[in-house]
Specification:
5 strands, single chain, 5-stranded mixed beta sheet, alpha+beta, about 30% helix, Aminopeptidase, 4 helices, binds coenzyme A
Length: about 180
């Protein structure tokens, strides 16, 4: 198949169409905006993960904490032709898992998000692979991703990179006090 270097190939993706790079301070406001969209979409798809009323105000603080965390890998992505306008991000943390079974150095993906209008062109995979590579370079022995079951895109992306189910988190409403 021919095509110019920046031509987007649906499904297969065109890596030259995007730039992916580590988060810098100048991105913080734009990243908070993207994260707001991610959380809104998640809450829409899974109403049990509803948002606190003041979430928007808190986002600026949590995002600036991300920028300070040495153990965190955060990448942002944009179109090559417009590198200032962020289209997505992915973030993950390196940690040692509590040694109940066996202490493991774990790289855990927290979030990966691409704006709906930029999806299915390969940016999500680029971002997630970049974060996973960073976590592996830090010494992670296993890579993990906790994903709400209704996020079909996130589940599909993780599966496409070889992740398989490990834990299933079951939930139900708590009975009212005094009710058995
Ligand atoms: C998960 C997410 C980051 C993927 O971003 P993206 O840029 O579209 O991902 P890519 O184009 O790199 O896709 C890579 C692979 O992931 C899988 N994938 C991506 N989106 C998928 C979807 N909606 N359903 C199933 N698999 C999907 C596919 O295997 C895909 O490869 P293919 O396009 O060759 O089939 C993006 O969908 C997102 O931000 N989602 C928000 C949360 C969510 O899941 N919402 C529901 C969306 S339908």
């Amino acid at each position: 198949m021919g095509g110019t270097p920046n031509e987007v190939t649906p499904g297969g993706g065109d890596l030259a169409a995007f730039v992916v790079r580590p988060l810098v301070r100048a991105d913080l406001a734009r990243l908070a905006d993207l994260r707001w969209k991610f959380l809104g979409e998640t809450a829409h798809l899974e109403p049990r993960l509803r948002l606190a009323v003041d979430v928007r105000d808190r986002l600026a603080t949590t995002i600036s904490v991300w920028a300070e965390q040495d153990a965190r890998e955060t990448l942002v992505g944009a179109a090559s032709q417009d590198p200032e306008t962020l289209l997505g991000y992915a973030t993950g943390l390196f940690s040692v898992w509590p040694p109940i079974w066996r202490a493991q150095r774990v790289g855990e993906v927290g979030e990966a998000f691409v704006l709906p209008e930029a999806r299915r062109r390969g940016l999500g995979r680029l971002l997630l692979q970049g974060v996973l590579s960073g976590l592996s370079r830090r010494g992670a022995e296993v890579l993990r991703a906790a994903i709400p079951t209704r996020l079909e895109g996130s589940l599909g992306l993780a599966r496409s990179l070889g992740f398989t189910p490990l834990l299933r988190v079951l939930e139900k409403g708590a009975p009212a006090p005094g009710v058995r």
